[in-house]
Amino acid sequence: MPLTTEQESRNLLKRHRKARFFALFCAAITWSSVVLLAVLLYQVSIEGFRWLDWQFISSFPSRFPERAGIKSALVGTIWLISLVALISIPVGVSTALYLEEFAGKGKISKIIEVNIANLAGVPSIVYGILGLAIFVRFFALERSLISGALTMSLLILPVIIIASREAIKTVPQGIRNAAYSLGATKWQTTWAHVLPASFPGIMTGVILALSRAIGETAPLIMIGAMTFVAFLPEGPMDSFTAMPIQIYNWVSRPQEEFHQLAAAGIIVLLAVLLIMNATAIFIRNRTERRMK
Amino acid sequence: MSQFPDSTLAEQNLQMSKKSVLELRNVNIFYSDNQAVNDVSFNIRRNKITAIIGPSGCGKSTLLRSLNRMNDFVDGARVEGELIFADENLYGSGVDAVEVRRRIGMVFQKPNPFPKSIYNNISWGPLINGYKDSTDELVERSLKQAALWEEVKDRLHESALNLSGGQQQRLCIARALAMEPEVLLMDEPCSALDPISTARIEDLLFELKSSYTIVIVTHNMQQAARISDYTAFMEMGDLIEFNVTKKIFTRPAMKRTEEYVTGRFG
Fold first, then answer.
1. DSSP labels for B87-156?
2. pLDDT tens by residue, A101-136
3. Strand B238-244 to B183-187 pairing
4. Are residues A255 and A110 in the same domain?
């Protein structure tokens, strides 16, 4: 007797064909976005590459394209992202820990949870308006780096909180039980076991969130980051510009040369982003390895 | 008087060993509105192994977890009655649950080593509780007590997650022993292990009996019969019978007990 009848084998063939089709479909979708990205990058590099030299990185903006550079925007962005990380990581992770480990699972937690999820979808310009009203005006922080950083932190906090909560949720209850059964307090359990075990997941959320922050323009325009800055910020209270704003500014000028400068700016922005993410992923993988 | 010359000593030993470490008096446990344990009273004797047996959902794990206040973490769990340990009610108002868990250790159903090195798994508990001496010695002693030292002594600083399931469970026992608990609670410690690892842990429990008091919840009646001195049989939250293990398995007083231990149900 054959393993399968004719009817069955025809049916099986159809199912296999379906599976192959689905795999192909997914691959096509994946590659189409990769190709799109590659084309975009190619376009940008063709345009911007010949402007990309040390002079471009080490010069302040100028009316003359051949003398213009991205120095103040680059330093501004590094300042901004460092401050944003400094503010949003502790606040976001603490909030996530509180909601997961300490707060009860009552109605209020549920309301907070829904609200945070909704906040993640609010347009960034709205955060800009909020930042303008609260930080720039009400707290009179002026159009400074710290205003920008606080606004940007608000913008990415929901992402950090949600990702951190998910990471904390995946820590097996057994680890908590083990710690408690050894006479550990809640704090000792959280600090020594829950936090380290969820660290890789938290880092993933932080990477995503900071990557978003580094490219955001709208809230910074709203709170009034300057577009022409011929000095470097020396402290969080100084006014500043950032790379997306500088790029936006160059793109909106009529001269073709400035458009190419914008492309060069995009390359620098992407490079900074890559370095930042690579560092974060390196740290994450190292801790992940240590845990195994 | 007895025919043995050292009768007084023997009697004293008997007295000592009969002394209870933990006394359960009319213990009721609720999850929100459901009662999981009904009015259970019995004594847990020093340096003996007490087994709690019964069909699934009979409340035996719930009862065990109430002995070191691990139920505190379950939303809506409530314990009534008295659990007397060191002359104090474990649920009394002045009693700190953290202190209770320090003195009454626990080994869980699924091996749950910390994702850290073998060494750190053992030393962490004592360190956070203010242990000041050299932890090297403590780690070695605990691992030896748990019969794991020979297998891991050359890789103390490797991750505990690389160990086999049976080794992980013995590591968890060693971790609990490092705290030198007065009572060691075990919640079906062998249910996730193969027969060889199970046998090793049973041998281990036998040795540990001389210095520790052990309460073990088990699904496996042969295991209870093999290793325990006292057995509590529970059903539907009620304590049906509590007695010397031999009695429970040979001449039980209750019909339900007999039916269960002879495998007619459950």
1. TEETTSTT--HHHHHHHEEEE-SS----SSBHHHHHHHHHHHTT--S-HHHHHHHHHHHTT-HHHHTT-T
2. 888 777 888 898 899 999 988 999 999 999 999 998
3. unpaired
4. yes
Partners of B88 in beta bridges: B85
In a shared domain, residues A111 and A226: yes
Under a CB-based contact definition with an 8 Å cutoff, are residues A261 and A68 in contact?
Answer: yes
Give the tokens for residue A109: 């937690």
The CA distance from A22 to B114, in Å, is 41
Judging contacts by C-beta atoms under 8 Å, the chain B residues touching residue A194 are: none
Helices (H), A98-185: 107-119, 124-131, 145-169, 173-181
- In chain A, the residue whose alpha carbon lies closest to the alpha carbon of B181 is A182
Note whether A177 contacts B108, CB cutoff 8 Å: yes
With respect to residue A1, please indicate whether it lies within any of the assigned structural domains.
no
- Total residue length of chain A: 292
Residue B238, strand partner residues: B38, B235
Sort out which chain A residues have CB atoms less than 8 A from B131's CB and list them. none
Residue A270: domain span:
55-291
- Which residues face B187 on adjacent strands? B217
ipTM: 0.87
3-state secondary structure of A29: helix
Whether A87 is in a domain gets the answer: yes
How would you classify the pairing of strands B20-31 and B77-85? antiparallel
Residue A90 Cα distances to A86, A95, A97, A164, A206, angstroms: 7, 8, 10, 11, 11
Q: Which two tokens stand for residue A72?
A: 């103040």
Q: Residues A44, A151: one domain? A: no
- What lies within 8 Å, CB to CB, of B200 at 6+ separation is B147, B166, B170
Contact state of B106 with A179 under an 8 Å Cβ cutoff: no
Q: What is the pTM of this model?
A: 0.82
Both tokens assigned to A68:
């213009």
Q: What is the pLDDT of residues A24-78, one digit of tens each?
A: 999 999 999 999 999 999 998 888 888 888 888 888 888 887 888 888 889 989 9
**A11 lies in the same domain as A150:** no
Number of Cβ within 10 Å of residue B29's Cβ equals 23
| Coil vs helix vs strand at A3 | coil
